[in-house]
Design brief:
This protein is of the alpha+beta class and 177 residues long. The protein contains 4 helices and 11 strands.
Amino acid sequence: MTTAFLLLILAACAPGLQPLYTESDTTFDPAFLGAWKAQKGKNSFVATRTGEFGYRIEYTDEGKVGVVIARLVKIGGSLFADLYPEELPAGNEFYRWHFLRVHTYAKVAANGDHLSFDMLDIDWFDKQGKKTNLPWTPFEAEGFVITASTTQLRAFFAKYVNDPKAFSSRSDWVKQN
């Protein structure tokens, strides 16, 4: 995964240490497979199946490719994606120990040839989410990492699933033929 891709993900959404799914409740929807292009801009990704319930997503941003693994889970009647980097940046083992792979979370919907990702909004979480009992810790100069357990995350998402401000960082995609 490129460092630029990691920074893009961290800048756009609230990162967490734990997954949103459990092995027993992940789901798979073939509608997410294939090549997708951003409705606005030049970004694109290709989603292929990995394992029984996973998606391997090769995301291209300004010609640089990053790879994440996605898992889908239903919470509060909505479908969510948990995104996690496939691999760490290149370098020796000592160097690699200094990188933290994190999960990011999005409410997702597929409708024919259209797909939307509504990321957990970092600005909303900074103002509202931190006031909840969801554990988090400061990270870097102005950021944070959600440290909640999977159970705590799921309860939080169930509570705010219909709050349009919580998931307001939207990206829309169109399937390519």
